[in-house]
Amino acid sequence: MAGGSFVSSGSAHYEGKVTGFVLVTCFVAAMGGLLFGYDLGITGGVTSMETFLIKFFPSVYEEMTNATEDKNQYCKFDNQLLTLFTSSLYLAALIASFFASTTTRMLGRVPSMFLGGLFFLVGAVLNGFARNIEMLIIGRMLLGFGVGYCNQSVPVYLSEMAPPKIRGALSIGFQMMITVGILVANLINYGTSKHKNGWRISLGVGAVPALLLCVGSLCLSETPNSLIERGQHEKAKEMLHKIRGTDNIEPEYQDLVDASEAASKVTNPWKNIAQPIYRPQVTFCSLIPFFQQFTGINVIMFYAPVLFKILGFGDDASLMSAVITGGVNVVATFVSIFSVDKCGRRVLFLEGGIQMFICQVIVGSMIAAKFGVSGEGTFTKVQADLLLFFICAYVAAFAWSWGPLGWLVPSEICSLEVRAAGQAINVAVNMLFTFIIAQVFLSMLCHMKFGLFYFFAGFVVIMTIFIATLLPETKNVPIEEMNTVWRSHWFWSKFVPSDSDVAAHTDQKAVP
C-alpha cells in the first residue's frame, strides 16, 4: 500500500451480464441530469421575455428598449444584472458541491440524489411563484444546491453500478438527460413566450423533473461500493448478485472490499488526493471540466435565444432556432452512447475537438463578414440558415465528445479512497467556470465581437492537444483497475508506482 492506493487482485474482467435491473436503475438515477439540463435551457428564454424583465429587471428592459446608437448588435444585451440571474445558480452549486462530497461518501449516493431533487423542487416552486427579486434569488440559490448535489452524486452512482463493458454508455445517460432537459426547456419557452405569465410556467415546470428524481430515488438501491464503504457487506453482496446477474461475483466483490479497506485507512481524502500518486486524477478532474466550459458551449446553451436575436433572428425564429440546436444536442448524444465503449474515449474527444474548431472558425468568420467591428448588419434567410447549420454542427460535435465525456471520464478514473474528493473537484471546477462564462459572456461579446468565437476556438486547439498527449484510453477498464492505465502511460507512470514497486515499498516498511 502506498499513499492509500489500491493494488488490485488483477482481475481485468468480471463475470456478469447486462441485467434489466441495472438498466432501469441507471435510467432512474440519470434523471438527475434533467435538473441541470432544464435550468441550462430555460434561463435564456426566460430572460428574453419582456414580462419577466418588466417585473424583475425594469431598468434592463428600459435600457434595451431605449437603446442608443452605441448599443450595436454585439452590445444590446450587455447587462451584468441580467447575467447575474443566470450565473448566480452556478455559484450556489459550486458551494453545494463540497457539502455534497461528504454526504455522498458518508450517507451514500442515493440520499445525496434525493437531497438534490428536494432542493431543486423547492427552488423551482419559489421561482414559479416569485413576487419579488428576493424570492427569485433565494429560489435560484436552492436550484443551485440541487444541481450541486445531483452533479456530485449521479455520475458516481452510474459509474459504480454499470458493468465495465458498458460503463461508458450507461454513464452517458446523465449527459443524455441533460440534453433532454435542455430541449424540453426550449420547447416550453417557445410555447409560453406569448403568454402573459409565461416565465412563471417556464420556471415552475422545473419542479416536475425534481419531483420525478425525488420519487425515483426512494426506489433506488445503493451501489455495492457505497454499501461496502459503510460496512454493509451482506447487502453489498446481494446487490452485486442483482446487478451482475451471476453467482460468480467473488472476484469483483473482493476487489471492492480491498479498495474499501484501502479507502478506510485514508482519514482525509482531500489531503490524500494531493499526493503525487493521484496527480493524474487531480489533473483530469480539474482540467476536463475547465476545458469543457471553454469550448464555448454554454454560450449556446444559456443564451441561445438572446444570441440568435443578436444575430438578427426574429423573436419566434430565435426561440425556434434554440429548439433546433437542443434537438441536435439530444440526437448527437446518442452517437456517443453507441460508440463510446466501442471506439473509446480518446477518438470521440479528438474528433469532436477538430469539428468544433472548424465550426467555430466558420461561424466567427461569417459574423465578421456580416457585422464587422461596427456590429451593424443583418443576415439574409439563406445566410442565417447556413449559420444555424454550422452552429448545429458545433453543438453535435460537443454532444458526442466533450459533453458526455466531461462527466464520464472524471467519474471513472478515481479509485474509491479519493472518489468523492475527485468528483467534488470536477463539479466545483465545472460550476466555477460555468458561473464565470455565464456572467461575462455578453460583455465579452460586446468587447471582443466576432473575435469571441476565435477565442473559444483557440481553447479547443489547446484542449485537443491536451487529450492527444495525456489521456490514456479507459474504455472497458474495471473502475477498481484504473491504476493499471496510469502505470502504462508514458507520462503518468512517473507518478503512479507499479505493483512491484508498491510491494517492495511494503516489504521495506515491514523490516524492523
Automatic annotation (TrEMBL):
Major facilitator superfamily (MFS) profile domain: residues covered: 25-475
Transmembrane segments: 20-40, 81-100, 112-130, 137-158, 170-189, 290-312, 319-340, 352-373, 385-403, 423-445, 452-471
Membrane topology, from the record: Multi-pass membrane protein
Swiss-Prot/TrEMBL keywords: Membrane, Sugar transport, Symport, Transmembrane, Transmembrane helix, Transport
Broad class of where this protein is predominantly found: membrane
PROSITE patterns linked to this entry: MFS, SUGAR_TRANSPORT_2
Family annotation (Pfam families): Sugar_tr
Location(s) in or outside the cell: Membrane
GO cellular component, one term: membrane
GO molecular function: monosaccharide transmembrane transporter activity; symporter activity
NCBIfam families the record matches: SP
Family stated for the protein in its record: Belongs to the major facilitator superfamily. Sugar transporter (TC 2.A.1.1) family.
Protein name: Major facilitator superfamily (MFS) profile domain-containing protein
Organism listed in the record: Clitoria ternatea (Butterfly pea)
Lineage: Eukaryota, Viridiplantae, Streptophyta, Embryophyta, Tracheophyta
